[in-house]
């Protein structure tokens, strides 16, 4: 029976590439594994997979009767349905430890670094397994994506070192350029339904008993979103009702200006001021220097919701 390796819902490039890499590593160590995704592969990830000739992982949404390894998350709200009806075998991640629990001891590799693929690079080294050239390529791209080309507050020296070594193996020499190329693909929103944009990189959180959804769109220039901003605001408003959210926040991140405009709809809008010291004008707030949901947005909101 194959074991499935899967990243979080609304898969991003790290979730997709880390699943492929861990499945490759584990299979070479004698545990036959298949990479999987919980949803459609986004345009940036598609670009990355095509560039290095990797197949997109198969779709998996339910863990019932399956053996599972998780990458890039350990929160139940972001994981497969019925995770408790499958057998969780490992977690490789770089987020805060979530709320999964297991009846048996499992393998856990989780480091406070900018990308799961940075942890995976060290796992390959630890086990002395050679990283295939194409997998080194997609792992490099995952690091560029998660660390916003090394600019995010989440980026560490370990990420830079891992990316350098992986790039060498993959024969890549201009990571800055490759990064911009990826973010341009990510920024192309024409013809994409508004709900798809909202959900493209969207995560649910339980904050002090409140259901909070936080999405993020990272673009090379915020003006690219001017034509859809009103529709995005309307859509998160509908989503709030449909999903019975306390709050829905959508970060529109300008990776060149290094800040985010946050669209918000909340039962308690002052929570934004409490979290960031910025009072929103209407349903928007500019958060200077804020690029990381994980390191800057989630912890601030968690504190504000707890207060
Ligand atoms: Mg991720
Ligand atoms: Mg990640
Ligand atoms: Mg990300």
Furnish the topology, listing elements before pairings.
Blueprint: E1 3-6, H1 13-28, E2 33-37, H2 43-51, E3 58-59, E4 67-71, E5 87-93, E6 107-110, H3 116-127, H4 133-146, H5 157-170, H6 175-187, H7 194-199, E7 202-207, E8 210-219, H8 229-242, E9 247-254, E10 259-266, H9 270-276, E11 284-288, H10 293-306
Parallel strand pairs: 1-2, 1-4, 2-3, 4-5, 5-6, 8-9
Antiparallel strand pairs: 7-8, 9-10, 10-11
Helix pairs in contact: 1-3, 1-4, 2-6, 3-4, 3-5, 4-5, 4-6, 9-10
Question: N- to C-terminal separation?
Answer: 47 Å
Say which molecules are bound, naming each kind only once. Answer: magnesium ion
Seen as an oligomer or otherwise, the chain set is single chain
Which stretches are low in confidence, meaning pLDDT under 50 for 5 or more residues running? none
User: What CATH architecture label of the largest domain applies?
Assistant: Alpha-Beta Complex
Q: What's the count of strands?
A: 11
What's the SSE pattern? Answer: EHEHEEEEHHHHHEEHEEHEH
Quick one: overall form?
globular
Placed side by side, the strands forming the largest sheet appear as 3-2-1-4-5-6
Our Rg estimate from Cα atoms comes to 19 Å
Biggest beta sheet attributes: 6 strands, parallel
Strand content: 15-25%
Mean pLDDT: 96
The number of distinct structural domains comes to 2
Quick gist of this model?
The protein is an alpha/beta fold and 307 residues long. It has helices at residues 13-28, 43-51, 116-127, 133-146, 157-170, 175-187, 194-199, 229-242, 270-276, 293-306; strands at 3-6, 33-37, 58-59, 67-71, 87-93, 107-110, 202-207, 210-219, 247-254, 259-266, 284-288. A six-stranded parallel β-sheet has the order 3-2-1-4-5-6. A five-stranded mixed β-sheet has the order 7-8-9-10-11, sandwiched between helices.
């Amino acid at each position: 029976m194959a074991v499935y390796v899967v990243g979080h819902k609304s898969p991003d490039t790290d979730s997709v590439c880390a699943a492929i890499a861990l499945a490759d590593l584990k299979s070479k160590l004698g545990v036959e594994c298949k990479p999987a995704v919980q949803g459609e592969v986004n345009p940036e990830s598609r670009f990355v997979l095509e560039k290095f000739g990797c197949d997109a992982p198969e779709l998996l949404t339910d863990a019932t009767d399956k053996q599972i390894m998780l990458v890039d998350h350990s929160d139940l709200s972001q994981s497969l349905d019925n995770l408790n009806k499958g057998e969780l075998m490992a977690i490789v991640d770089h987020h805060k430890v979530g709320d999964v629990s297991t009846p048996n001891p499992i393998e856990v590799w989780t480091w406070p670094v900018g990308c799961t693929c940075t942890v995976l690079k060290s796992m390959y080294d630890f086990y002395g397994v050679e990283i295939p050239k194409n997998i080194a390529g997609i792992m490099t791209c995952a690091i560029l994506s998660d660390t916003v080309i090394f600019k995010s507050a989440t980026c560490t020296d370990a990420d830079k070192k891992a990316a350098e070594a992986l790039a060498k193996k993959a024969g890549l020499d201009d990571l800055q350029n490759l990064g911009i190329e990826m973010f341009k693909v990510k920024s192309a929103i024409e013809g994409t339904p508004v709900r798809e944009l909202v959900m493209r990189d969207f995560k649910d959180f339980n904050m002090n008993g409140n259901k909070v959804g936080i999405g993020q769109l990272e673009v090379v220039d915020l003006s690219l979103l001017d034509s859809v901003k009103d529709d995005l605001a309307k859509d998160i408003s509908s989503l709030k009702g449909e999903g019975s959210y306390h709050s829905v926040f959508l970060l529109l991140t300008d990776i060149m200006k290094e800040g985010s405009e946050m669209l918000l709809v909340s039962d308690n809008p002052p929570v934004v001021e409490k979290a960031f010291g910025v009072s929103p004008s209407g349903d928007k707030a500019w958060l200077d220097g804020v690029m990381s949901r994980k390191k800057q947005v989630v912890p601030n909101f968690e504190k504000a919701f707890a207060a």
